[in-house]
Structures are given as structure tokens and as C-alpha cells.
User: Which sequence fits this backbone?
């Protein structure tokens, strides 16, 4: 008897659900990211208050150009938005912006009390001062999710495993049916070439390639390779720049286990230039590292012509950990590895050693 009652109840439930869904008008429940985004914009982002789009500290071309292009997109969607940077831009970014006649954004010293959209980062160590007291509305990123950025309200979070944040921004333009003008196309194209090493990086995806092809056409750049080399020739000109400035041209901090690590990427055009900059930085770092509140410091000197690199490391145990992470005692990488892949290997090695201890 109990079994029969249970069967009848279940049958009634199933029939009821079928009839309920059958009664719904076709297509009424269909929605996608654009609908969610529109609702978010209308309900959370105050139209009367300016929202600042900003990338990570020690800004590179992706973080600068993505902030500008995304702020421009938001303006097209009638959101009061402005791009900002967290510090002086490097020579490569300056070249890209000047090439397409785009003004350099103003520096935002502190985010406290402001509406903020973060691009190209998701960790507090790379964020502008005051981020813990800001109203973070969105995060647009392509990096690993470390999850230590906290917000007072729910955020719109868009993260994709692509080679460049600018690729995600390009996709947002397309999803929102917003036309991309020549200037925005140009700076996004430059950002993609920069972050994917001219589409050669192992992190480069087909979406990055599609975005670059589309943006290159809009930007009216006939020879993408030539444009990339012009960018890098400007970027690797270290005349009049101190060793400290070179180190912090592209610097990021990350945590591995309970250790604080610094990471710097330096670009050179060829092997000869790589050797020259290596000697210069190595001499500087011997004293500089002692002044830093870091357990380890890693430098990747990237050589563009042959797409190779060499790693330098500083700090107690750093050489052994890097050797274990790379699986070799030879720190000259004939096949350049993505920064994120090496950093993940270092983090994993440190955490494994900590667990074993």
C-alpha cells in the first residue's frame, strides 16, 4: 500500500512538472550573458557615479589598452566610465597609444570609496592602493583565479583561458553589438600581440587569433609582424633607463605556500642583447634583493628573435626550487615557456616541499 501511494505521488509530481513546463511560452526563458550583464548594469552600476576601469600595478600593454577599450565600451552602453592606470606606462604601451593617437589615461592613486572595474588581474598584491575599501563592480581577466580580492557586493566576473585580456574585451564588444573604431581596434591589437608574443605563446588560443585578425583589419595595419617588431624595438630600448626601472617595467608579486615571491619579465631583441642585460641586472640584483621584503625573486629575460628566454633567481633555495620546477639545471629556455606556466610550477614545487616537510 505504501509503495502504491509513493508511486502515485511521484507520478503526480512528474505529470505536474511536465504540464507546467509545457505551458511556458516558447523562448521566454532563454537568456544569455548579455541579458545578465544588462540587468547587472541597470541595477548595480550607478549611472550618476563615475566607474573607473583600471589594471594591475606596473602596467603593461594589455592592462593599459584593455582598461581604455573596456571603458570605451561601457560609455557606448551609457555607463559613466573612465580608464585609469596605476602608474607610469612602459615604452611599448606608449608606442601603441601614440601610434593610434590615444591619450594616456590619468593615474589613479587610490581606489578607496570609488566604483572600480578591475582588468587583467584578480589578486590584491597586484591591485592599486585602497582596493580593499573600493566598490568593485566587475573583474575582467585571463589569469589564474587566486581569489583574495574581496567585494562588498556581488560582482560581474568574466574570466577566460585566453592569451590576453584584450581578447575578452573584443568579445564583449561583439556580444553587445558595439562597433569598434580604428583607435580601439589598434590598441587592442597591440595588446594581443604583446601578451601573446606575436601569437607565438603557448597560451595563445584560436580566439586570440580570431580577435587579432579582426582587429588588424579594422585598424588598417597591413603587416602585423612589422608592427610587432616596431613595438618591441621601442620596448627593448633601455638607453637612459636604470636597472631598477627595467626590473619594475613588468613586475608582479605572487604567493607560493607561505613565501612571497617577485617576478619580473624583461624583453630583449636577440641573444647578444639578452647577455648584456643579464649581466647588468645580475649585478644590480645582488644588492637590490636584500632590500626587498620578498623570500624569492625570479626574472625571465625574454629574447624575441629566436623566441627563447633565460631565468635568473635570487633568495634562499630559489635556485633549487626553480631547477625542480623546470625539471632541469639549465635555466636557458630554448623554447620559451609562458610566465604563468613557470609561476605555477614554482608554486606547486614550493607547496609540495612544504607538505613533505
Assistant:
Amino acid at each position: 500500500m505504501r509503495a502504491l501511494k509513493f508511486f502515485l505521488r511521484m507520478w503526480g509530481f512528474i505529470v505536474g512538472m511536465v504540464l507546467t513546463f509545457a505551458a511556458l511560452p516558447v523562448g521566454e526563458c532563454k537568456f544569455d550573458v548579455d541579458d545578465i550583464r544588462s540587468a547587472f548594469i541597470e541595477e548595480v552600476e550607478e549611472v550618476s557615479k563615475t566607474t573607473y576601469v583600471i589594471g594591475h600595478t606596473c602596467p603593461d600593454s594589455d592592462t593599459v589598452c584593455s582598461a581604455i577599450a573596456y571603458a570605451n565600451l561601457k560609455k557606448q552602453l551609457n555607463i559613466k566610465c573612465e580608464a585609469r592606470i596605476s602608474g607610469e606606462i612602459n615604452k611599448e604601451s606608449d608606442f601603441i597609444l601614440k601610434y593610434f593617437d590615444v591619450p594616456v589615461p590619468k593615474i589613479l592613486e587610490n581606489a578607496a570609496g570609488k566604483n572600480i572595474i578591475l582588468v587583467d588581474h584578480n589578486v590584491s598584491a597586484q591591485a592599486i592602493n585602497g582596493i580593499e575599501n573600493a566598490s568593485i563592480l566587475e573583474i575582467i581577466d585571463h589569469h589564474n583565479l587566486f581569489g583574495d580580492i574581496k567585494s562588498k557586493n556581488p560582482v560581474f566576473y568574466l574570466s577566460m583561458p585566453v592569451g590576453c585580456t584584450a581578447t575578452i574585451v573584443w568579445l564583449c564588444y561583439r556580444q553587445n553589438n558595439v562597433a569598434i573604431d580604428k583607435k580601439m581596434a589598434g590598441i587592442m591589437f597591440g595588446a594581443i600581440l604583446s601578451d601573446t608574443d606575436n601569437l607565438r605563446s603557448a597560451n595563445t588560443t584560436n580566439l586570440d587569433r580570431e580577435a587579432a585578425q579582426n582587429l588588424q583589419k579594422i585598424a588598417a595595419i597591413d603587416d602585423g609582424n612589422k608592427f610587432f617588431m616596431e613595438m618591441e624595438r621601442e620596448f627593448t630600448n633601455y638607453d637612459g633607463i636604470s636597472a631598477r626601472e627595467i626590473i619594475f617595467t613588468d613586475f608582479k608579486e605572487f604567493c607560493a605556500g607561505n613565501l612571497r615571491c617577485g617576478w619580473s619579465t624583461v624583453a630583449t631583441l636577440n641573444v647578444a642583447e639578452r647577455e648584456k642585460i643579464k649581466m647588468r641586472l645580475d649585478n644590480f640584483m645582488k644588492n637590490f634583493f636584500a632590500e626587498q621584503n620578498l623570500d624569492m625573486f625570479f626574472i625571465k629575460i625574454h629574447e624575441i628573435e629566436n623566441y627563447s628566454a633565460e631565468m635568473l633567481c635570487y633568495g634562499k633555495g630559489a635556485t633549487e626550487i626553480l631547477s625542480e620546477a623546470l625539471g632541469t639545471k639549465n635555466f636557458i629556455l630554448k623554447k620559451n615557456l609562458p610566465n604563468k606556466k613557470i609561476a605555477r610550477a614554482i608554486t606547486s614545487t614550493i607547496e609540495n616541499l612544504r607538505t613533505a616537510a
Notes: The longest strand covers residues 259-268. Residues 65 and 187 are 6 Å apart (CA to CA). The radius of gyration is 24 Å. Residues 2-31 have pLDDT under 50 and may be disordered.
